[in-house]
Write a structure and sequence with these properties.
The chain contains nine helices and ten strands. The protein is an alpha/beta fold. It has two domains: 160 residues, D-Maltodextrin-Binding Protein, domain 2; 92 residues, D-Maltodextrin-Binding Protein, domain 2 (3-Layer(aba) Sandwich), CATH 3.40.190.10. The longest helix is centred in the C-terminal third of the chain and has 14 residues.
Length: 289
C-alpha cells in the first residue's frame, strides 16, 4: 500500500513520523555505493561532512517511538536513533561527534542543498525520490503485521496458523494482500477494501476479525486510529517497503553511508536493533507458522 504523511494536530501528528510510502520499491531507486569504496576508506578525517569532524543527522519533529524515544533523537533510544549512531560509529564518529537537526519529512526529499549529512525519518526508497536525492542501502524492510481489536479472538493468536480461520481484511493491490494469500492462507477469503480508510473502518465496525498491514502502518493504526486495537504480531514478507538514509543528490558520503549500512547488516547488528526496538518490546511479537 502506498502510504502518505498525514497533516493533523495533537496525537495525529504521529502520522507525520510514521506513515511513508509503503509498497513495492524498485531496487534501482537506491543510489548504489561505488564498488571501489571500502569501509576502510570511510574515515572521519577523510569524509567531507557539513562540518569537519562532525556528522550532522536530521529527522523530523516530533520524533515518535518506536523510532525515537521521548522526542529526543540524540539519546540513542529508538530504532532510527540507534541506527544513526551505529552508522556514525562505523564511519569513526563518536556519539559526541553527532549533531542532530530538524528536517520536515516532506522537505527532506525535495531537490537542492541540504543542511545535514544524512536523514533518517522512515523515508521509503522510491524511484521518484531517487531522482532528487540519494539513498543509502536500505537499513529496514517493513514486515507485515496483524492488527485486531483487543476483545477479538484474533488478538489471542500467537502464530500464523492460529489465524487460519480468521476473517481478515486487507487493502487491494498491496503486499499485505499477497501476504494473506501466500503466507497466512486463511480458510475464509479475505475481505478486500479499496483504500486504507476502508480497512480501518472495517476493523472498527467489526466487519473483520483482524486486518493485515505493514508494521509501520500497524504502529500508527494502534497509536492514533483505533484506540482499542493491538498488534497481534508481525511476520516477514519479501518485497516490503524499504527505508534508507537520505542524502543530497550526488553527496560524497553516499557510498560510505551505504558501506556502513551494509556492514551493519552483514554483522547482524541491524537485525539486533530491529528486534530490540521494533519487536516484542514495542508490542509487535513475531508470528511464526
Amino acid at each position: 500500500m502506498l502510504r502518505a504523511r498525514f497533516a493533523s494536530a495533537a496525537l495525529l501528528v504521529v502520522a507525520a513520523m510514521v506513515l511513508v510510502a509503503c509498497g513495492s520499491s524498485s531496487s534501482s531507486s537506491t543510489t548504489s555505493a561505488s564498488t571501489t569504496v571500502s569501509l576502510a576508506d570511510c574515515t572521519k578525517d577523510a569524509l567531507k561532512t557539513k562540518t569537519a569532524g562532525t556528522l550532522t543527522v536530521a529527522t523530523d519533529k516530533p520524533a515518535y517511538p518506536p523510532y525515537f524515544v521521548d522526542d529526543k533523537p540524540a539519546n540513542g533510544q529508538g530504532f532510527e536513533s540507534a541506527v544513526a549512531y551505529a552508522i556514525a560509529d562505523k564511519l569513526g564518529f563518536a556519539k559526541g561527534d553527532v549533531k542532530w537537526v530538524v528536517e520536515p519529512f516532506n522537505s527532506s526529499y525535495a531537490p537542492g542543498p541540504k543542511n545535514f549529512d544524512f536523514d533518517v525519518n522512515q523515508i521509503s526508497i522510491t524511484p521518484a525520490r531517487a531522482k532528487r536525492v540519494d539513498f543509502s542501502s536500505p537499513y529496514y524492510e517493513a514486515p507485515q503485521a496483524v492488527v485486531a481489536l483487543k476483545t477479538s479472538d484474533a488478538a489471542k493468536a500467537t502464530s500464523l496458523s492460529d489465524l487460519k480461520d480468521t476473517q481478515l481484511g486487507v487493502q487491494i493491490g498491496t503486499t499485505s494482500l499477497d501476504a494473506v494469500n501466500d503466507i497466512i492462507k486463511p480458510t475464509k477469503q479475505a475481505k478486500v477494501f479499496n483504500d486504507s480508510n476502508d480497512v480501518v473502518a472495517a476493523l472498527k465496525g467489526k466487519q473483520v476479525d483482524a486486518v493485515v498491514v505493514d508494521l509501520p502502518t500497524a504502529f500508527y493504526l494502534t497509536a492514533a486510529q483505533v484506540e482499542d486495537a493491538k498488534i497481534v504480531g508481525q511476520f516477514p514478507v519479501p518485497g516490503g517497503d524499504r527505508w534508507g538514509a537520505l542524502l543530497a543528490k550526488g553527496s560524497p558520503l553516499t557510498a560510505c553511508v551505504s558501506k556502513a549500512v551494509d556492514s551493519l547488516r552483514s554483522s547482524g547488528e541491524l537485525k539486533t536493533l530491529e528486534q530490540k526496538w521494533m519487536g516484542s518490546a514495542a508490542g509487535a511479537p513475531e508470528l511464526k507458522q
